[in-house]
Each structure stands twice: as C-alpha cells, then as structure tokens.
Amino acid sequence: MDAEQIRQVALQMPHVVETMQWGANLVFWVGDKAIGGKMFALANLDGDGRAVLSYCAGPERYAELLELEGVIPAPYLARAHWVAVERWDVFRAAEWKSELAAAHALVAAKLAKRTRDVLAMPLREQRRLISERKAVLAGRAVKKR
C-alpha cells in the first residue's frame, strides 16, 4: 500500500472528505469539518521518516496494535487512542482496509447528532448546507483580521 491506495480506500467509505493540513498531511474526515465532521486518519506525505499514516484505533485495539513492530502511539493524538504506522509494509492490503474501516466506524459512531442529521440528508441539500456553513465560517475569519 501507499498513500494513493489508502486515499482510494478511504474515499470509498461513506461521507469521507479529505483536506490538506499541517504541511503535507492528507487528512480524512467522516463528514465535512464545517458541519462538525471528525478526522479518522492522517497520511503524512512528506516522506520525512516519521509515520506514514496515523489513525483512530479505539481503546480496545490501541494496546494490541502498539505491540506490533512499526506501530507507535500517534504524536499529539495518543490520548485519543490513535496509533501511527511507521511503514506501509506493517499491514497487508486487506489489513489496511480493515483498519481504516474500523477507524471510520469508530469516529462515525461518535459524531454529534446534528452532524449525523446533516449526513442523512439528501446529497443536494447536504451540499447546500455545507456550502452555507463554509460561507459563514469564512465571514467570521475575515472579521477576526
């Protein structure tokens, strides 16, 4: 696996949105951040020797995953039971898919009711609402300057 294959897998999951943040990090969200979506995985595209992918493991799998060679506590997110994988060869392709699906499910289950309600709307209505919300947030950012 590599970052592009992970991207393809993640974008096939329901309600996934991707953003570039914090330098060269590709962040995958369940739901758009503008409506209260939450991130479930983060791919480091820098190739700087740090972890290639960090994701939500949940309290049940966290300790188990840390026993694997090449899996460490995710910097800044370990307290939320996130792990960081140092190399793409730590898991086989099917295992990567399973890990990402589990991370997606864990985060989706924790979304606020109002966010889940927006995600349950018809796609056209959902897009309109997200667009309106982004406009409001952009207006607030301009006022702060």
UniProtKB/TrEMBL annotation:
GO molecular function: DNA binding
Keyword NADP annotated: no
Domain of life the protein comes from: Bacteria
Keywords: DNA-binding
Xref: SUPFAM superfamilies: YjbR-like
Pfam families noted in UniProt: YjbR (PF04237)
Record-linked PANTHER family: CYTOPLASMIC PROTEIN, CYTOPLASMIC PROTEIN-RELATED
Protein's name according to its UniProt entry: Putative DNA-binding protein (MmcQ/YjbR family)
Species annotation: Edaphobacter modestus
